[in-house]
């Protein structure tokens, strides 16, 4: 479309880049929108473009169009921003990371004090199976523009190194730590990635690494967070978080969780339909 290459958009981290209709359509495609829906939304968004428009404004415009048509892709399209919806404390995101490990066959414990060679460390997520023991530092950010930086990578690597020199009792046996990692709900800075790749530190973020990142894990396992659901209010979300419920599919698997929510019957029907479309339950 003519002229779009000259439109500058402001990203969440404060940097700018040329507007890309291809990026918009790819994000819609990945959310499950068909070609005609992608084309319609691209056409609408293009009419609203002004120089310096934020990616957040573009997202809101596309999201509202999807939701207006009651398109099941609306919940999937909101995935990246839904991860910020685990705030403000971030403790639900720690629970969520634990659920990701559980989906991959690990037993999970969260918020554990674990003794290293030199000192004890509070470890956000401990995951283990018969083959390996994994410990993860979970970094939650309330805004998309915040990134986990080099300082975080450095101190996490130091903690993992200390923990790697001790034996740990998990799964009814003494064992060494096999892997340590950082998991964040946003992105990493370039210097953090450069250090991690040099030092052998495992990092998992929204779009890092290229394969096996957080977005991939969520979509492959249908581990969409509750905050994706457009039919849940903030009050409902927080009530469920307080119960330790963080996944959409948990609502589909336990009808009592839906019955306990203060909403009318038509809203419950809409919620069940959205869960079915999103999680296949």
UniProtKB/TrEMBL annotation:
SUPFAM superfamilies from the xrefs? Restriction endonuclease-like
Limits of the ATP-cone domain: 7-88
Cross-referenced PROSITE patterns: ATP_CONE
Chain intervals for the UniProt region annotation (Disordered): 1-24
Keyword ATP-binding present in the record's keywords: the answer is yes
- Kindly state which keywords UniProt assigns to this record, in alphabetical order: ATP-binding, Nucleotide-binding
Q: Which GO terms describe its molecular function?
A: ATP binding; nucleic acid binding
Which superkingdom is the protein from?
A: Bacteria
Any Pfam family = ATP-cone
Q: What InterPro entries does this protein map onto? A: ATP-cone_dom, Restrct_endonuc-II-like, tRNA_endonuc-like_dom_sf
Answer yes or no on keyword Nucleotide-binding: yes
Q: Which Gene3D superfamilies match?
A: 3.40.1350.10
Q: What is this protein called?
A: ATP-cone domain-containing protein
UniProt organism field: Candidatus Taylorbacteria bacterium RIFCSPLOWO2_01_FULL_45_15b
């Amino acid at each position: 479309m003519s002229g779009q290459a000259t439109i500058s958009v402001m990203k969440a981290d404060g940097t700018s880049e040329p507007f890309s209709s291809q990026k918009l359509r790819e994000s819609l495609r990945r959310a499950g929108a068909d070609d005609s829906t992608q084309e319609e939304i691209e056409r609408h968004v293009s009419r609203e473009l002004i120089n310096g428009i934020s990616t957040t404004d573009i997202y809101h415009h596309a999201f509202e169009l999807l939701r207006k048509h009651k398109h099941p892709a609306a919940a999937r399209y909101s995935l990246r921003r839904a991860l910020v919806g685990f705030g403000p404390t971030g403790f639900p995101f720690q629970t969520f990371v634990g659920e990701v490990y559980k989906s991959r066959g690990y037993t999970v414990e969260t918020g554990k004090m674990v003794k290293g060679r030199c000192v004890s460390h509070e470890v956000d997520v401990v995951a283990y199976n018969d083959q390996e023991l994994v410990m993860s530092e979970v970094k939650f950010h309330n805004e998309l523009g915040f990134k986990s930086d080099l300082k975080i990578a450095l101190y996490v690597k130091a903690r993992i190194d200390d923990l790697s020199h001790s034996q740990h009792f998990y799964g009814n046996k003494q064992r060494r730590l096999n892997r340590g990692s950082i998991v964040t709900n946003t992105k990493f800075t370039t210097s953090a990635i450069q250090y991690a790749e040099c030092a052998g530190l495992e990092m998992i973020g929204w779009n890092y690494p290229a394969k096996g990142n957080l977005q991939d894990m969520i979509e492959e396992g249908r581990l969409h967070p509750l905050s994706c659901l457009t039919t849940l209010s903030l009050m409902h979300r927080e009530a469920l978080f307080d119960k330790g419920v963080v996944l959409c599919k948990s609502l589909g698997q336990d009808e009592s969780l839906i019955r306990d929510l203060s909403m009318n019957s038509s809203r419950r029907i809409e919620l069940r339909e959205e869960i079915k479309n999103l999680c296949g339950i």
